Amino acid sequence: MKTTAAEAYDVVVVGAGHAGCEAAAAACAMGLSACLVTIHLETIAQMSCNPAIGGVAKGHLVREIDALGGIMGRLADETGIQFRLLNRSRGGAVQAPRAQCDKAIYRLTMKKWLEDIPNLTVFQGIVTDLLVENGKAKGIVTLDGHTIRGKAVLLTPGTFLNGLIHIGLKSYPAGRANEPAAPELSENLKRLGLKTFRLKTGTPMRLDKHSIDWSEFEPQPGDDAPVPFSFRTKKRLENKVVCYAGYTNERTHEVIRKNLDKSPLYSGRITGVGTRYCPSIEDKVVKFPHHSRHQFFLEPEGLETSEIYVNGLSSSLPYETQKSILRTIPGLDQAKILRPAYGIEYDAVSPIQLRPTLETRLIDNLYLAGQINGTSGYEEAAAQGLMAGINAALKTGKKAPFVLRRDEAYIGVLVDDLISKGVEEPYRLFTSRAEYRLRLRIDNADVRLTGYGHDFGLIGDDDFHAFHEKKERVRNVIYYLEKKKIAQVDKEKISLKDYLKKPEIHFENMLEYGKIPEVLTDEEVRHVEAEIKYEGYLKKQEKEVAKILKIDGLKIPEKLDFKKIHGLTREAVEKMDKQKPRTIRDMKKIPGLTPSDVFCVYVYLNARNKKKAPGDNVPRGTIENG
Question: What does pTM read for this prediction?
C-alpha cells in the first residue's frame, strides 16, 4: 500500500467502511488500480456500533460475500471472540452464523490486509466534490483542493453525509462520534440532481466491565463447535468470551417516560426516519407499553478493553438520563458509562435512482453502496460494496455487468429490493424477504456463487479446486444414500435417502446402517441433510424459477408503441419510452412501474407473438415485481 495518492486510478472509492473496503479489494483483485479515500486511516473498517458480524439473513449475506471471494467472512473468523450458529434446532434455511468480534483487531487486520494489496492506494482526506464531465464521474476533490481522478467513482460514505449527532437536546455535526461530517459532498450530490432524504440510526452506551455485577445476568456462551463464516477457514475457531443477557423493568420504563421531553426523537429535533427493527429503548417503551420488560445483551468489545456494548439499549436521551436508566437495573446500578449512547441523522440517496449494478442512472460510472442507499448493517453494506466493486471493474474492462437474481442469492434480493421498491426507513435484510429462501441457505452459498467468484479472479485456483473436491464428496454420499436400501418393519425397503427425509431422522442415523463412503465435515453434513430434506420443495421452486426466467426473457421490440398497450398509464408509457427496456426483466427494474404495468406488457407481447408463431407456449401467470 502506498501512503500518497497518484494522479489517476481505474477506480476511486470514497469511504473505508465495510462497503468501501470490499469494493476496493474486489476491484484490485480483478486487475484494476484503486484509491481508497478515508477521513482517518485509523478508522478503516471501524465497527461503529456493535462489534458483531452475522445473524439471521445477515449471516447468509456474509456466506455469499465469502463464496464470491469477498473479505468479511474470513475477517470475522480471524477476529471473532465468540461464535454461535443461530436457529441450530430449526431448518437449514434459517440457520445462520453470528460472531462477536474484537473491534480493534478487526479494524487493524482489515487495514493490514489492504496494505498487502499492491495496486491499492489508501489516502486520508475529506471528499467535498465529485468531478463529473459530460454526465460521467471522473474523480473527486478533497477539502484541501487535491484532485484524484478515476475511470469510475464508488461512494460508500456511511452516515457521514450531512451527519448530525444527537444526545438529548444537544446536537453537533459529525459522521460518527468525534469524526467530522461531510456536508459539502452531500450538497454536491443534490446539485448534481440526485434525490436525497434523511434517515436516523443510533448506538447504545458503552460500560466499564469492572463496574458491572455480572451475577445478576444470564450467561450466553458460544457454541461448543463454532461454525465458520468462510468456506476457506480451516482452523478450529475458539470462543474467548461469554456474553450475558439482562432485562429492563417498570422502573426503567418510568424513567424513560418522564424524560421523553428531553428526547430529540420525541421533541421533533430528529426528522430522519429510524429503523423499525432496531429501535431505541425510548421507542420500545412508547410503542410497546404492554411489555413490562425489554431484553438487552452485555457484549465485550474486545479482549484488551474493558468496554461493554449494551446491545438493546440504543438511545438518544441525555447523558444524565442514561445514568438514571442504569440505576434502575440490578447489576448495572453501579455501572460507569465510558461512552454515552447517541442518535445520528444523515443523508441517504433514494436507491430507485440506481441500476441493478448499483451505478446511478443519472451519472455514468458513479456507483453507490452501503448506508448511502438507505440500508442498515455492516453485512448489507459489505455485500453492496462487493457488487459495486465487481461491476465497476467489469464496466471499466468493457465486460458484461454482474447482476444476481432473487433466486440466486440474498445479495440479489437486497439489491433488487433497493432499486425496485426504494427505501422509506433504514433497510434491513430478513429471510422473510426472500421468496426462494429454501434455495438460499448458508450451506450451499459456495455451490451457488463460487463459480462467479473464480471467473472474476476473486477465488484462487487452490480454493476453487478444494470447492470441487467438496462437491465430489457430497455427490458420492448422496449417491450412496440413494442406492443403499434398508428394511422397515412390515413395509417395503426404502433408500437411506428417503429415510433421511423423515423429520425426526438426521444424518447421524445413517451411520447405524453402515460406513459412509466419504468423511464429511460438519458443514458438509448439514449441506447433505438440507439438500435431501428440502428436495421436493427445491424441485418445485426450480420449476417456478424456470417459468419466471422464461417470462423475464421475453423480448420487447425496439420500436414498440407503448401507447397501444391497453391498461398502461401515461406515466408508465413515459417511463418506458425513456428507458427503452429490451426485455420484461429490464422493465421490472424501471423505478415506479407496478406489477400491473409489467403484466399488461407481457399479455400484449404474448398475444402478439402467438399471432406471429402459432403454438407458442410462453406460460401465463402473475408477474412479480422483481
Answer: 0.90
Domain residue limits at 526: 461-540
The answer to whether 382 and 72 are in contact (CB under 8 A) is yes
Looking at the fold, whether 77 and 151 belong to one and the same domain comes out as yes
Bridge-based pairing state of the strands 164-167 and 170-173: antiparallel
| 433 plus 578 within the same structural domain | no
Greatest Cα pair distance, the chain, in angstroms, is: 84
In one letter, which amino acid is 128?
T
Of 445, 476, 497, the position where a domain reaches its end is 445
Cα(42)–Cα(108) distance, integer angstroms: 8
Same domain for 30 and 93: yes
Segment 295-352, tens digit of pLDDT? 999 999 999 999 999 999 999 999 999 999 999 999 999 999 999 999 999 999 999 9
Q: How far apart are CA 346 and CA 272, in angstroms?
A: 8
Same domain, 255 and 120: yes
Tell me, yes or no, whether 91 and 162 share the same domain.
Answer: yes
For residues 603, 606, 609 and 613, what is the CA-based torsion angle, rounded to 10 degrees?
A: -140
Which residue, chain included where needed, has cell 490486509?
113
pLDDT digits (tens, 9 = 90+) for 83-137: 999 998 888 889 999 999 999 999 999 999 999 999 999 999 999 999 999 999 9
3-state helix, strand, coil in the chain (%, to 5): 40, 20, 40
